[in-house]
Write a structure and sequence with these properties.
By secondary structure, this protein is mostly beta strands. About 0% of the residues lie in helices and about 40% in strands. The protein is built from no helices and 61 strands. Strands 54, 56, 57, 59, 60 and 61 form a 6-stranded mixed β-sheet that branches. Strands 9, 10, 12, 13 and 14 form a 5-stranded antiparallel β-sheet that branches. Strands 19, 20, 22, 23 and 24 form a 5-stranded antiparallel β-sheet that branches. Strand 6 and strand 7 form a beta hairpin.
Amino acid sequence: MHRLKRGLGAAVATSVIASGAGIATAATAQAAAPRPTQEQKVLLELLALQPPVLNGAGGVGSVLTLTNPVWSLIGVTNSFQWLRDGAAIPGATSPTYTPVVADAGHDLSAQVTGSFLGLLPVSTLTNALPIPLPGGGGGTPAPLALVADVLPVLSGVPGVSSLLTLTGPVWSLPGVSNSNQWMSNGIPIVGATGSSYTPTAGDAGSQITALVTGSLFGVLPVAVLTNALDIPLPSGGGGGTPEPGDLLALLAIPTLTGLPVVGEVIALTPIEWNLLDVTTTVQWLSNGIPIPGATGLSFSPGADLAGTELSALITGTLAGLPVVSAITSALGIAPADPGAITAAAAPTVSGAEKVGTVLTGTDPEWSVKEGVTTTYQWLRNSVAIPGAVQKTYLLVGEDFGKQISLRATGTKTGSTTGTASSRPVLAKLGDALTASTTPSISGNAAPGNLMTVQPGTWAGTPTPTFGYQWYANGAPISGANASTYIVKPAEAGRNLAVLVTANRVGYAPGSAATAPVAVAKVASRTKLALPKKRIAQGKAGLLKITLAATGLKVAGKVTVFDGKRKLKTYTVRSADNGTRTVTLPRLKPGKHALTAAFGGNAATKASRSAKVVLTVLKRKR
């Protein structure tokens, strides 16, 4: 049993009393102390007297730190786990954390767990800190856009084996991640994705460029192209015009890819020449004999080609040079099985090919005309999509950028099962998300009050993730990127609105703005004071005017009255910091009850002062 000594003075930290077989008694103290009485023994318990606190600016790339909790016991060991929207961030277990782009638009917090020998660990949470989405700008609210303010640049001496260097673009928003793709004559170079590239012999005579794609959470990716560098031919020439002695050649003979069965698509790998502007033609061959009409970069063999050898004749022509031809290695098409079902025509796929739209497949034409049962399976990058077994398929976010195809399988009792696949289509980015109901703001719109934005409802599933930007009179409020906002005094009399941005994987972001909400004006106070309450006849009196409002510096016009008679209107300027001493008109001998009326301004209400009495003494004769 654990006990804590009371009343034994500050010298004693803790006492642990244990009993039972095999358990030793232990005590920790800074000085010897008398044995506690029964009344002095209480259960030992670890408590967080003060919770931990997050510190930091709360932006991507800005370090956050933790103020540890204050525990009820001395010698507690702390362990840490940072959280994004309440879920643990893998590997984030130190007392500091630097938000990354993935944290933008989410709430960060941290869980601190205290451990003490012999007691159960105790966990406590910090406050949550929203990490804003990138953005800014003024005027009419608009969706965030990423722009390359300075384009990327290639530098270096263009030549085979000469290092080229890529200087990245300067983006309009912070925190952008770049991905690079080097290209030769506009064709991506396999594996060339770094910040530098050394041209090979195969690049001679071509133009080298690089495509830099900037990515930022909540914003559409943007790709920008560098300048082009011409890599000269070994003979010193460059470009598409052949030099004397040049010969046209394939850099590598293409190969055939695909499942070598009837009805499946067989494709050529990329065709690359050593010179520019080459005209390329393709002729597919069966057992070396041209197949009429088969001149594309891919081909689907019919049942009549079962058991034959399929290859492709590639021919390149360039003015002034001999024609060059090459034949690929042959690919054997599985021989026909008399009882097999084969596809005379493969299924086809049609549709907008965008995430959120439907693809529709057609039936294949089987070699067996009757009694064949056809089933379907949609494929994503050649892998079956679970549950997608109809002739139609709704493209989802996971399909974006993937190759989608339809495989048909024909079965019949007594026959060998046959399959046939459509040509794949590339799933494109879906249309921008749209709000079914407009976002709205709730709360009492007055300085100091909490306002909340409801993001509205958005078409489709799953529910999007949302980003927020609060505006005052059309100008973005710095750092106001959460679903809640506490109105500042400076926003009194202004209109608040929120631009809600919705994000869903595979779709272009959508945005919708709330209707503006007017923030109430704050009450003002007008006060008068007389530096001298009695003045001689013929002298002009001085009057101190003070305007005030909670949380604001007040400026505006103030009218001074002598009783009901208007004396003069004065202006308290912003530079006066709410107080101005003015000179009154000369007044007749006697007592004058002075008051002042402030007419209010865009942020504050009107107010009137209490009266002060100025006595003008009659001149002695």
